[in-house]
Structure formats: structure tokens, C-alpha cells
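Troubleshooting entry. Yesterday's outputs looked truncated, so today I'm pasting the complete records for two proteins to confirm everything comes through intact. If either block looks cut off, that's the bug. Protein one:
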Amino acid sequence: MPSKLLFYDDLGTVLLLGRRFAGVSSNLLFGTGRVEADRAVLGVAQMFNYPGVHGLRSTVSGLRDWLGVSAVAPLSNSASTQSVEIGFKVVRVEPLRVPSNPAITFAVEGSAQTSSVGATLTTALYIEDRTDTPRRISDHLERHAAVRDLIALSRWRPESIEAAAVCHDNEQASLPDGSKLDRWLDVANGRPFAAVDESLARHLIQFSDIGLTGIARWIALRQEFARAIDPAVSGIYMQEVTPEARLVQTAVGIEALGYLILIKDDSVPAAKARASSFEARLERVAKDVPFTLLGYLNAAWFKAVADAYNATKHANRTLPSGLHLMNAWRESTLLFRVWAALRLGVPASALESRIRQDWQFYAFSQRVD
């Protein structure tokens, strides 16, 4: 197949990315080939070097509500005995710039659609970044995924991320004064993410706690502790797996986290840190969390979780019940989340009440049919 596949339909040009041959059919006279694609870029003017792009806009579920931004504002309302007037307007919202390197921006756009039966006002929020040289869309998305992971970590539920638009220097519009303006091209995703659970899960980390600087701190933390954070957060997206798999996924992250804390924060020699047990590493992570937040953090709990984790790895050891494993996973995961929240600057006083409203604070129990 060609490296680029550009075609025209009744709405304009379409550039397919991530193409796969999906079969062919023929009736001896005519043949039809089928191609599947991960994404389609709409309205391309030139055959430039996609999938390398200079800029990407993406959407992340739950982000707009977490940031608390809206491009729709109310007008003053009035009422009389015969009618009630309720008004709203679309306002301009300044972009929110995260001071990371390279920087990412939260772009807020409002729109209004009217018809004979009413009007619809909406707010779109995009994560946006731009680079001097073209990068693959997947590379841009990886940077944006740091924000998705923060939202997912905050309430421990899956969050979706999708490419929404791209820009390239070759596609820029020329203005009368000779300057250039980015032209954002819409992206259609061939494999949309599954619908996200819209239940009212509470956030452990709130934007008001950490601000844009805290988001930048998270991006840096996610890079510095990638060997710990990546496996732990990936566990959010594990569906229909056994209790053993859940515990192992979180424990792998905590095991790496304890090791990295020993080296980075405590200046322990690497050889000595490597020789430390999982139980010792778990205890080291817990050392950064006040006992008043998680009262179960004690020597008996460290040993119980370590024994459960080791039992999942060694067939010669007795495996605890599924209920015991699920509660060990739940409490270990909550420890990881609280550690991250404190590291980002969330006050312990704020966490104390939020933890008791978080679903992971409450133990699983045996269901009686």
C-alpha cells in the first residue's frame, strides 16, 4: 500500500493515516478493496509529510469539568407575569498555558447554533501543543496523555483521549500583512474509545489545589517516576481481570516507586535499594503519607500486602482469597493516589475529607446471594 492515501469526497480532501488492508471482493468483472485507517485528516490542501505534524489538539473526557472553565456565560434574567427571559452568551476565554517544556495549552472555544425551535451553546476544550519540527501524532498524544492520566488518577476511572485537530506549517493561511495563521484540520478517529463511565466519582485532586503549575509538576513527576506511575495508572484500563492481576499491576508500580524514592529522595546507593524487599519499599512509600490520612498503614498491613503479592508470583505459596486480594489492591492503589496528590501539593487537610468520600476508602465485602 502507498505510504499516503489521499482522496476526495463530496466534502473535500481526506488523508488516511494508519492504514491497513482489510480485504477485497470481486465478481470477476469488478473488484472492491477495503482499507481500514486509524485516523482521517479532513481538508488537507497539500500532500505534506503526515503523520508528522507541528501541532495537535486533543480532547480528554472529564477535563473541562475538572478545570471548571466554560465559554458560555449567563445574562441577566427577567421575569413578568406573562413571560420569563433567560439569556446566555458565548464569551472569549483566554487560553490556559501549562508552564511545561515544551508547553501545552488548554484552548477553550465556544459556539452557538440557532434554529427555529431554539439555540444550542457549547464549550469545547482542547489540549494543544505545538513544536518547531513535525512530530508523529502519537508523539503529541503521548504528551497530552499525561493530562488524561492525572484526571484518571484523581478519581480512578478510565478517561478517554482522542486527536481532534492537527496543524502543519505547509497548511498555514497567509494574512494580508504577510503573517501566517495556523489552519487547524479536523481529525476523524477510526477507532473511537469506548464510552466513559459518567458516574459522579469524586476527585481526590482538584484543579484549585494545584493550578497550572501543579499540572506541570505532574508532567515532570510522570516522566521522573515513569517506571512506577505507568504500570500503576495502566491498571485503570484493565477490564474483567482477576484479583491477582489487579494487585500485581499496582504492586509492580509501588515496587518501582519505593525503589526510586530510596534513590532519588533518600540518596540510598542503587545496589542497596535493589536489595530492598517489596515490603520495605511499600513501607517507604507509606512513610510520605501521614497516618491520619490512611490509618491502615502499619507493620501488619505492610506484611499482609507483601505476602499477598508474593503469593501471586510463586505457585508454591498459598494464594489468599479473591476478597483479600481485592482489598489489598484497593488499599495499595489508594496509597499510591494519596502519595501522588501530596507530591503535587494537595494539602493533607483537604485530602482527609476527600479520602473518606472516595470509593476506594471502603472495603469490598463478600456478597451473600
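Protein two, checking that the full record survives here as well:
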Amino acid sequence: MCKTALVTILSLFILTISSTAREKLVFHSPEGWSTLRDDSLSIQFISDESVYESTVSLMLVERNLHGRERIVSRSNADISPSGNTVSMQTSLRNMGGEAYYYLRWAVPDHNLSGTVGPISKYRISSHALNEEIPVPLFEEGSLSDEAVAEQYAQVAEEELPTNVYMAATPEELILAAHTEKTGTIALDPANAKTGFPLFSVRYISLDTAAEMPFYYIDRRSSADTTSVEISYRSREWFGDMNSTERDSLRIIRIPWNNLGVKFQKNRRLGFAYLAEQGAIPENADSYIPATWSNIKLEKK
């Protein structure tokens, strides 16, 4: 047998053993990238019959922004043939973005171990829904650039958070900001309730030095199943967005299908304006949509 074929066979054999080991304990809850809503974590798993009556050791680990970790709670459970549910307490703080929990588990008698995560937590009571921003909804095709500039000029300054004007028609979402305005506008079709940015979140970066705003998506990933380290990296968001300038305003038009959103009246979207000064809301974190506001389409 040639050396290449032998290496291939050995690799497949090792992968089969590794896969079988992972399948001996299958977690239904929590799931990676999930968001908890209170201070308790419900853990549910099933197991292969070969590990029945063994003991599984569970540790809930908190990882902060600087990569330092601490064990929040521990629990041991006897593995039952009828399914298993264990409850563990989290710390009191909200977690998300680059700070999160993960579950570390082990079955020492069978030399099995693994991790589940990352897991965020954001209580609904902490959500910035009270900062919901109404967005006027106009009839189809009724908002030219000239009309947008007129609407911008008519709105009282105190009603225009950080001077970002928003409007909508059945075809598109319209954003207008002064050409000297810098910062990042974030939009979340999932109503900004998650502790991690979803793949559907879209960002628009405003830069006075650029001729056009930069539209991008944050791609999230965890390094592997043992370290549960998160990485975020941006890639360009391609679509039919359009940007023009009129009366010192930059007017951005985004078709609803480019947001992955089906238009409807009273629709809500997660929204944040991220800037060093004048962010909306004040506690907005770019990697934690649950710290953002919502905008609501309301008929003019």
C-alpha cells in the first residue's frame, strides 16, 4: 500500500473516532450564538447509551473583553437514558459582543469533553425599546432628493437625533445626514434583541473624506470548538444602495430587498448611530444589537 493511501485511511479513521466521541453527548440547549433573557441557563442534552449512568461535569465560564476567564457556576449531573436537564446561574451582568459565556463539559470516565458557545445574555427589561424612533412613511415614489432636503429642513433639531433624518416609502428606506457628519449607521432586521450581531445586520460608514459611504457586513465566527474565541471581520455589502448629495446633505437610499426585509406598515428595525460623540442610543455597542434602539415606520 502506498504511503499516501495509508495516510488517507488513518486520517479517516481518526476523524470517525472524533466524530463518534462528539455524538455521545449532544446538547440541544444552549446553542452557540444564542441570547439568554434572564439570570439562569437551562442545559438540555441527550447521550449515547454507552455513557448512561456516568457523571457529566459542567462549568459555565465567563470571558471578558480582555480575554480573561472566570468560572461562574459548576454542576455535576448523572447522565440519564430519558434525557437530561440542568439549570445553572449566570452572573448578574449583561454579556454580548466580545464578552460572553461558554459551557465547558466533561465525562471523565469516558475521556470525553467539549464546549458549547459562545452565549450572550441581555434582559428584555434592559433593552432600549423606550428609545423607539418614529420614521415617517410616505407614498410610493413620493420622495425625490429635493423633497428629502425639504423634510430635513422642516424637522425641528430636537426631533432629529444627531441630525440623521430617516424616512421610508414602500420601495426603500431613506437616510439623510449632513455631508460633514461622520460615524456608522447600523440596521438590524431582527429588531435588535440579540447579544451578538446576526448575519442580517448591515452597517453604513459615513466618512467626510470619501465620495461614497461604505456599506458593509460584519461576519462573525468562532475559532474552533475548544477555545470558543470570537472574531469579527467586515466585508463589503453589495447591492442597489444609492448615495447622492443635495443642499449639503448626503442622501442614502436602500431598497428593502437589500436589507432582506419585506416592507410593511408599522415594521420595526433595530437602529443605532455609532459615533464617538452623539451616539444613538448613548450605550450603543456596535457588536451588541440589544443595546440599540428600534425605528418604527409610521404613516405620515
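Both blocks look complete. Sanity check on protein two: The longest helix spans residues 3-23.
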